[in-house]
Amino acid sequence: MVQGVVVTSFIAVSDASKEAFKTATLLKTLSVNSLITGQSGVGKKSIAQYILPNAPIIDALKFDELLSTLKSNSDVIITNLQNSPNLLTLIDTINNNNIRVVATAKYHLDNEILDDLFSVKFDIPPLVQREEDVTELISIFCKEASSLFGVQNELNRESFVADLSNNAHSLKRQVMIAYLLQDIKDTELMAIMEQFLFDKIGSNSDYRDFLYLYEVPLIKSGLKKFKSQLKLSDKLGLNRNTLRKKIADNKKYL
After folding, report:
1. Alpha carbon distance 216, 193 (integer Å)
2. pLDDT tens by residue, 85-94
3. Apex CA 13: angle with CA 9 and CA 17, to 5°?
4. pLDDT tens digit string along 153-200?
């Protein structure tokens, strides 16, 4: 397995993440303000904590708390800068109190005043562009899940398609669920379904509308196991045309 640089929860195996880590290491030695951009779950806050390990972390939306923190600390990490309700006041407070700031934002902020405040800006690419980091993160999340759930079975990597829709957040959730489901009991599965359905049922067509929750996984697992509709219809005790109709009815999930 490729060994990466671990910065709290930030993984640097790919060239892009190594470059971000190199920039962060340089910033640790410089008394300048910096802005880190990138999607949710790419490791912005972890890199910010690496640069300023002892600084308080405040979300830009918590404006009053943020202003108070800026007046009582020499170093501050500001997250979600794009959500700040008053950038001018924020910047004035930073400048007037001579604060060192590392900020994060989900996208590039086109603002001349911010350009003057932040001497260094750099972007962390999404995980879809950092394939080596994904492999390393899966290994780390598998170890966490194995320890948490007491499951020794390894994740089947061949059939595992990483969910990177929310970068590390969605990937970790996916791995945790995969491990949780390895030894799930039927009573536990039914309890999950009960909780899921409790707030959703209430119309006179609920039985028909939610039948797909049973039929889709049954059909998908059956087709994967038996490889043909003919064999599956026989195993399920269904007429082949009935199975075909159910597949057509649920085509958006299959």
Report:
1. 14
2. 999 999 999 9
3. 70
4. 788 887 789 999 999 999 999 999 999 888 888 999 999 999 999 999
Q: At CB < 8 A and 24+ separation, what contacts does 81-84 make?
A: 81/35, 81/105, 81/109, 82/106, 82/107, 82/109, 83/59, 84/60
- In tens, the pLDDT along 121-166 reads 999 999 999 999 999 999 999 999 999 888 877 888 877 899 999 9
pLDDT for the residue 9: 63
Q: CA–CA separation, 226 vs 206, rounded Å? A: 30
The reply to whether the predicted model has a pTM over 0.70 is: yes
90 contacts: CB under 8 Å, gap ≥ 6: 60, 63, 66, 67, 70, 78, 84
Tens of pLDDT, residues 223-241 = 999 999 999 999 999 999 9
Close Cβ partners of 155 (under 8 Å, ≥ 6 residues apart): 138, 142, 175, 178, 179
Task: Give the Cα separation of 35 and 81 in Å (integer).
Answer: 9
Rounded to 10 degrees, what is the CA torsion of 122, 62, 168, 254? -120
- 30-40 in b/e burial notation, b at 16+ Cβ within 10 A? eeebbbbbbbe
Measured between alpha carbons, how far is 163 from 175 in angstroms, rounded to an integer?
A: 9
What distance in Å separates the CA atoms of residue 36 and residue 48, rounded to the nearest whole number? 8
